[in-house]
């Protein structure tokens, strides 16, 4: 007789696709299922309930199927506790550790479902049982694992809640959509993004802007600086290059040697980049340079002037780098992780590298806007399964003035 | 009391997403629904049946909802005949004509469901009732409508069958997927495409190759010519440019003036293109040039030598054009339409314009392979809702030798 | 003894690269040269003169070299008349016909240099000697050749004047540059384009806008309509799709079924496209539809209302098409050719097909602006050798509002 | 009277464009010039000599012009020694330091021209005068500057030798060309690349392969592994992701969870990536894992087995990372710099980040091949001014099997 397990699904599982996906999982993985109870949500707002018996040829196959169903929002009718195993060494997880999704997750400990804190993809879950009144569970990236950490292994006792399709029809924010269309009216879309920023700020939320160097080359830096000054941006995540270009623009009026106003290339302009770095090194860093009056405008200036925190993460293509750049990638990731956890709305502006780094740390519940001129970049960034995301293929140099116009000038 | 209508859904409606989509339609359009009967497919191969009562605030809204449900595979429990109206003039359809999808479609005439022939997107349906034993229905593009044609109008009496998700797990051919990934192993994917071609030929099917000029520039023409010679290609759909480049290659060894073997640019090479056109014009056309021995190799040569029909559709960017090019776009579309209807497998090779033209004429049931180096082109071509399609972002100049190698040399 | 010929170069031949290119031609083609006289332009505005003796192994090689030097601006010291041969048949040129570049060209007839009218790439040159006081020379595309036309053959007696590098330093308009950078400040670049449009209009020049459907999808149509209304656009070159989208927007508020303001997709919206076509067919065409009051806004409306002529060129991917669409590609090319000849500034907006068609007909002296979100499209369009061209990789949906803002609102 | 300076140009300065560029520099920067002597290279292999007097309105302008002429290969008739200034602090250069190009460079010290070692772009030049028989000059990146280093400042006493256009006509390796065409025959181009690799190895040269993760996803890893095993690759420069994917493929047969042979996605496959990292961490690193027999095939395996050194440079988007990954970007750059200096031929395979990092360290004299499916990536990588470079827009998953086929199987 084939091994069998009973699982339950509940919620708007039909139009969210959950039910179709779960049936698909069983079929694709060579199992079979029998629906035992099915209570359909007969009205628009009613939830659906489905209980089914899943069986497979072997216990391991069944376990894989059940695990996969878990990842899609099903729960076992008769759940067991999660299994825990101590990490054998620093940065080494137990062999069969559970690797997280970016959806809200719960682990069962002594019969209770414990909410996993700081949900993030591709992490281990560590359960802390001592010293606290109630047990706590949180994610840890592999390199942060300490010897002895109690790590969740296997598939049992874990529940994941993939986001549901919102009830209220159309919205510029797409639901779990990977694709991206450039055939959308740009002005209207920018209007929706401006609304999302304004709404987030009204609700006391936190807006994180992830910025690539093209923000400066394309002439958008002034407008981003304005958004920082006016309080629409709560944190900046960028690289050494972005900061250098932004400061070069203040010191010399150029970005990578081109005058941002006149588009002329002053001879020697290509040296402004490296001169900017050496100047800021001489000053001791960005903050000191602002304080000394050496930097007088731009995004970095407004960050310092308005206490907007920034992370400059290093990369192997950096010149310099500036003293403010975090050159160790693990340290930089940790700094980015803090920014990501605080953010309610993340706006990714013309950078793949930094956007992927931030995106890796985001739970699926954080709102996301991604703007890039390269459709492949937008597609790649939208593929991470955010519940609410807008992908826009546009020119950052025209996007930013129009966004600032909507937010600041037409206020 | 709100107007109400009862609709039915049947088949693998859960994992094909049909049911979720239908529920979504009602909700998005402001209607409500009550499920009256629901018989779930309890096993992998069992079909599901769902009957629901849909209501809306007004009769027009309800009709729109019902229409939309129809488009997604629902049928009215108590169907009425389709309404027919005579076309008022040549190329002019009645105001409320039904515009087709590319899925199998049926219209109800005198109580019977009549299969719509030559299914194609964005057409009118014309019903012929006289002179034939049974009534017939078929699609007509707008410009082909004759005064007096009986055209289906409104939403009633029309049934559409969107394709179902195949039962058998993984396949390189994706199901109704718009997106495309370049992160797939190229050799394995080419192997699958070779298998699909071989299988189509074994089953007596018809393979249509749609070719852009890049096939020649990239050095792939020899390999495509081999596929034509060996009987793997039953028809070619291309433009004037493709044919000119292919023949230039035979006459001069160059394509757009570059030697395809040595990659040198013989001076005056850029004139080979226009010289080729004038030479073929002098010969009276491609067939005559082959017969006269003026063309001795290449794709066009193999087509003539092996009686593989081709359509060369004109475009406003053509030089010349060759006497064989159909310069009127309506005439060219009609020629392409014939090719598309005959095809069981269509392979789109590095051309957006011609692939869209062919794709416009294809029913959703024709297998599709699309290869282009530009991901946006592949995405756009995959977006047309083929039930079975492979999109591959690759270099046509390496794709074709590897495909020919798999089909011909490793046979 | 090797055959030898003496050629002369004159002008700013050093910093325009002409001299380097000519020396390169001789070396690359296996010839050798001896400089006989060299009078360098010793000051910034002085011209340089160079006379050199070119020799090669054989007379045919020498002729090829000399021909190539001609194409690059060299002239024979002792020029002969051009050779003329009668076309043997309609649309058939003599075997050795001279195929044109897009640079200003002269042919020598009875000892006089005759200016070639309507310079266009890849054409034949026809000389008319009878019935006019002075002989005239003009280009003809191959399909326009009439039996008996006197066609220039061979290489002798032809002089080409490639454009010279402008003397006055930086300008947003690049000189003969194929490449394109997205790393330029968008607002400043749009400012330069606005200046070029305004300047062209002030000088009584003619601005031709070449428009793709994305102008409408992206929400830019209102702004283009404004530019037409305000007199900044003298002619529109587009396809059936552009016109249909623009009119759909007026009739239904949607483009390809998406509401351009709210970005909602009204159900049935995807039918608006085909309904629009059938409606305009019913009206008898765009002009009639405007006169009947059926169309009340948009680019096509403004064209009719302001007597701005338009060409809608057909293509094999058209739905419909509208009665106004020229479905024969040769006829359409001829209509485009007229537009191109009249234009002083051509602005290509998000279309490859129509831009290539227009670009094919332009002399190298017409100013060119090309805006597209796809860098490959911009690169391809800039590769045609315009003496003054701006290529901009941007979002047409943000470009057009900002351009209109600069030209109209900030006037 | 305007300040004046005399400069000289020598070599194939006409057809290399050097002379045109130099005249352009003077004109663009508002100077004027008078040619005093001009000895043209009257034959193909003869060099040209030009001496000119350059003047400008002010001494600073003149100095800028002269500096720019220097950068383009001109030398002062009456050269002075370079000025040296001690670095005021670690990682801080004197204000007016000379920032290098990637061309061969010489500085004048006590009347002698000293060759600058390890030429690299955007560095300072440090002159060492003590403790060695002869003075030495070499480049230092900003962060490597030590307090007291004698750094070259200003423009005097510096000579740069931009590469000359090769004499011998066509070659697949382009000369100083930024652009890239996808309209080239792929098989022939791969043949040229194979020849360049074979030739480099025959001459005892060093081939560095820079690899992105797509090498593995696209199914190319086996073929690259073969090239390593057969001795065609002397060093690998990559990131954590590449190594993880390559090892995942060995451990599980998948890359990012997709089976590279069958293209199926085993459920749980998406966890293979993170499991691979934890497994190698457990083993203590790649070398240990190979020695323990845990890794048995793939690129990393062949590197260890054949003593081919590799650098895995960390990035903020890394999972893990592997213990072998250098997480500090400055350290990683230094490791990459060593690889770059040793290389005679660099092949960049489907990675922008790592290719830019390597490219930053290369002198303009190193041969370069760059293959990527994204034309923008290829363009960006070719823009760095290599004297001999091939850019190819292709699919790495078809490129690598065809390259291996040419090098190994057809040997």
UniProtKB/TrEMBL annotation, chains A, B, C, D:
Catalytic class of the enzyme: lyase
Domain LOR/SDH bifunctional enzyme conserved: residue ranges: 5-103
Arginine dihydrolase ArgZ/ArgE-like C-terminal second subdomain domain residues: 192-403
Leader sequence segment: none
Keywords: Lyase, NAD, Nucleotide-binding
Cross-referenced InterPro entries: ArgZ/ArgE-like, ArgZ/ArgE-like_C_1st, ArgZ/ArgE-like_C_2nd, DHS-like_NAD/FAD-binding_dom, LOR/SDH_bifunc_enz_cons_dom
Role this protein plays: Catalyzes the conversion of ornithine to proline, with the release of ammonia.
Membership in a protein family: Belongs to the AgrE/ArgZ ornithine cyclodeaminase family.
Protein name per Swiss-Prot or TrEMBL: Ornithine cyclodeaminase
């Amino acid at each position: 007789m084939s091994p069998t397990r009973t699982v339950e699904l509940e919620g708007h599982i039909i139009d969210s696709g959950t039910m179709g996906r779960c049936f698909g999982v069983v079929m694709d993985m060579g199992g079979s299922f029998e629906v035992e109870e099915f209570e359909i949500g007969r009205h628009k707002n009613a939830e659906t309930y489905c209980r089914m018996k899943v069986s497979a040829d072997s216990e391991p196959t069944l376990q894989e199927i059940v695990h996969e169903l878990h990842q899609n929002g099903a729960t076992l009718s008769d759940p067991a506790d999660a299994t825990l195993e101590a990490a054998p060494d620093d940065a080494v997880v137990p062999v069969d550790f559970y690797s997280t999704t970016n959806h809200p997750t719960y682990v069962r400990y002594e019969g209770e479902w414990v909410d996993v804190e700081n949900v993030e993809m591709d992490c281990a879950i560590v359960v802390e049982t001592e010293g606290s009144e109630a047990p706590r569970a949180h994610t840890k990236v592999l390199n942060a694992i300490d010897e002895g950490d109690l790590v969740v292994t296997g598939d049992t006792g874990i529940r994941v809640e993939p986001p549901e399709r919102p009830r209220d029809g159309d919205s510029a924010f797409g639901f779990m959509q990977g694709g991206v269309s450039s055939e959308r009216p740009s002005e209207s879309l920018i209007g929706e993004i401006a609304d999302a920023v304004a709404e987030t700020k009204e609700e006391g939320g936190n807006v994180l802007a992830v910025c690539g160097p093209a923000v400066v080359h394309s002439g958008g830096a002034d407008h981003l600086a304005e958004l920082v000054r006016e309080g629409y941006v709560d944190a900046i995540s960028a690289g050494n290059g972005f900061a250098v270009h932004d400061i070069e623009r203040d010191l010399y009026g150029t970005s990578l040697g081109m005058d941002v106003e006149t588009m002329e290339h002053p001879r020697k302009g290509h040296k402004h980049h490296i001169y900017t770095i050496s100047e800021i090194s001489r000053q001791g860093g960005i903050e000191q340079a602002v304080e000394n009056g050496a930097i007088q405008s731009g995004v970095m200036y407004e960050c310092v002037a308005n206490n907007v925190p920034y992370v400059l993460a290093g990369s192997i293509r950096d010149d310099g780098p500036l003293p403010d750049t975090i050159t160790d990638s693990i340290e930089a990731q940790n700094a980015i992780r803090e920014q990501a956890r605080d953010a309610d709305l993340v706006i990714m502006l013309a950078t793949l590298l930094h956007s992927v780094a931030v995106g890796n740390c985001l739970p699926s519940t954080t709102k996301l806007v991604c703007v890039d001129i390269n459709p492949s970049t937008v597609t790649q960034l939208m593929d991470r399964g955010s519940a609410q995301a807008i992908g826009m293929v546009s020119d950052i140099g025209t996007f930013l003035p129009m966004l600032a116009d909507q937010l600041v000038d037409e206020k």
